């Protein structure tokens, strides 16, 4: 599904190399986790894959189901099935959450040549999905992420994910700023979306999220590279011993 | 275009009362400035730029006599170690001034720049003033360039160990002074200029400041407490790359003050802050007019003006941020606020933004109102007498402007002046 | 107003914006109607003024009123203080009177109106037929689509061509007719109020209007009456080289209420056309008037050719205690806009509100804002202005807040935000704040910024293209104002926001 080969990325504005050759393949139906210390390039990877400005790919490739992601505009990547759950979901004052969602859903459907959802169908679906994430009607009416608590923002990201039904979901530190209950709720939402056709890339600093979203593969990222990969036990190792042991071992 | 008759007559009358000094190398600049005055005429009551301040007494042929104010209070910065340059009724006083020699700086009297062949000063005189005439004419500044009788040229080449204090003493009730200074701050040089005193019954002062790349200039001014004086001052400042300019003005008393600051950010990453605190009581009209032009990338400008007014005092603020096309990443901020202590005072403001670049963050705010009754009550409920509580809140109101002074000792001197003023007045 | 005939329930009006963005084409109302016109000769002089008066069958006092205005205007200079630049207008090279020939004999009912004219309005989506009931399209899931009536007075070039729902309004005591009819039928009201809010000599354009206004709307709401439906005037300039000078007079007597809508369109032409209207509103004790405008005059093409020069004087006089007026405007059209709907807050506890969206693209120039003049005690005003500038356009907010010494305990809050799209346009803010008493509180805030990159990226990550994303974010930026509009207008306005910004991205 997602195939990243030898990806090198630097900042556009300063000559600083962030990713120094990332190789990663996520197959459909699998959950991959990327862990790593601060500044290792985890978030940069998520931004580059979703097409945020400010990064320059100097080498390597990234494809989604064989399509070259790096050549696409952000919205084309979204329509192709790429979804990024933001670490800091953006507030958009004045734009209703519902309006935002419907616009996004229909834009993607249209880009894929599918029929747009009617108001009634859309409403039915959004209500059902919102309910399971404990998102109340009020949150749907309020402007996008404005005045939302940390937990509400992250739940809102998951709701968008559920509505947009992407093929590849990247979750950038979705656990940051969440208490245990909120994290459980978010994880349940994610787990409900796990199926044979969908890949996940869960970026996290801590192991605790992975207690709730069980990964198939865990990668350790450091200094712009994936330095070690393994099963779920790798996450526990990090939890118990920190990153320093692994990094020492690799170096 | 011909001038309206009223303006023509007023301008001619004023010019008839003046004689251009024998100016040597500044002659061309003075002739040029005179031509500008003739073209635009002196400010009139109907000029948009003088909408809130009547220029009549500033442009009249003769100054209105002003009683010399005296009390025992020393000048604001008297206890500071500084280099004194004293003018009495607009005339340089070598006797009262310190020796002008100091490391990192050279100071000359304006009339000496020609014979001493001080190139930078000859080249700067009238230049920033001329640039500052567009897009808004400032005829009083042009008049100053043409007819200035004295002034100094200050060349900052290093980091002088103490501030330079320009002291303007007022001794004659009929004095009418026109002073013009030029200051050049070289790269990586840094200095502090202090100005104190009322200068004259009527004072027209022009200061041109050219700050080279990475230069820094601090300016702190206290305008003197004479009740009856009138002043029109202009400061034209041009900033090079990564240079810094910080200016603060305290005004208490004075029947009429118009302070104009014209700032041009021409080098990338430059910073300019101007601030003013004024406290006006009774027959007091104070006008801060600021025009900041961003003509480079990633510059920051800040305007903070606070006015406390009572017994019919009037406070005026006209501030503008102009961001030229291409001046991206501009950070422009402006706040003007007035605290009206009674029902007779007024605050008139025109805070403007004119922006031709999209990647900018510019904002202005302006408020006017009475003292916060809730806060006043809170203080009183804790046992603070009304008078002290009012003073406390007034000082708190002014603090944001005073905070713009970087040197904490200078800031304290200003605060203690304000405290004294408040204590005496209430 | 094309959206008016859509009757299906919408989930949220914002969707309209997005649909609108997808629509290809720019100015939707840019066609003209081939109708035989009757013109007065070009230029303006006392004879033309008399002719206009005569054509409207006006009494002598009205003719004199106009002539004295003309005399004053002859000695006045065009104002030059606004931040707008345009080639000098030759006031003698304009037609000051044009009307469809079919109107020579006033039609007795709408059935007698030239069908081409009616077709024009149909094309504009204006329901001239009385049975036409506009669908309420209140969004969200819970609002049922319920019928809503709007009475329309349509003004075509110089003359009013028909007013709907007259009978029903008459029953309520409301007078809603063309101003020319009001001058003939209700001279006592017109005499009493005309020119009392915007004096004949107020300004260059208002004075010209006073001399040559050809028609416009008149509204009188009697004491205690809540106008049973929204009133609307639709202005259309059709004839070439023709200035439109309409005059609107609205009187809300004690304790009454009316909501009034104004819409404007004009054909696409190479040469600029002049529009100089005057709107006067009198609000008596406890009365309330809402005045909403969607101004969509032709803005000129993408090279700045043609378009309407829009010089408008609008003012409301809150004479009575507790009277209230609310101006809401969406200005997306015109090549040049010069307009400051204002409130004189004379009555104690009177209130004025001004909500504005001004969008300029290509070579458009807008200098618009408001004046809030607080004269009475305990008066309140609120200003919310959103300016959006794209292309090579210049957008200026100009406003005055004045607290007079007697306006004790009054309040003003002003928020002016400007948004820039692209590095070749300009956004300017020129507020005047005059506070002459200390019990009043004035707060003014203004910001200028560009469309937020993070917001755009977020939208695009979720699949919207850049133009869609900009339209969405800009509509969000304008929300405070859009919410102040009546529903039909809000929908139209949202579409306009999107359409006006077409081609501004990239």
Detailed description of the structure:
The complex is a heterotrimer of chains A (251), B (426) and C (506). With 251 residues, chain A is α/β, with parallel strands linked by helices. Chain A is built from nine helices and twelve strands. Chain A has helices spanning 42-50, 74-80, 97-111, 119-132, 137-141, 150-164, 180-193, 208-212, 233-250, and strands at residues 2-11, 17-26, 31-35, 55-64, 67-68, 82-85, 92-96, 143-144, 168-172, 199-204, 217-222, 225-230. In chain A, strand 11 (217-222) and strand 12 form a beta hairpin. Chain A starts with a strand and ends with a helix. Helices cover 22% and strands 37% of the residues of chain B. Chain B contains nine helices and 19 strands. In chain B, the strands form two sheets. Chain B has a ten-stranded mixed sheet with strand order 2-1-5-7-9-11-13-15-17-19, covered by helices on one side. In chain B, helix 7 crosses helix 8 and helix 8 (386-402) packs antiparallel against helix 9. Chain B is globular and about 70 Å long. The N and C termini of chain B lie far apart (52 Å). By secondary structure, chain C is an alpha/beta fold. In chain C, the strands form four sheets. Chain C has a ten-stranded mixed sheet. The longest helix of chain C has 15 residues, at 60-74. The chains are: A alpha/beta (251), B alpha/beta (426), C alpha/beta (506). The A-C interface holds A 50-53, 73-75, 77-79, 83-84, 86, 89-90, 92-96, 98-100, 102-108, 111, 119, 122-123, 141, 143, 160, 164 and C 9-12, 14-15, 18, 140-141, 452-455, 457-466, 468-469, 472-473, 475-480. Strand 18 (346-355) of chain B pairs antiparallel with strand 25 of chain C.
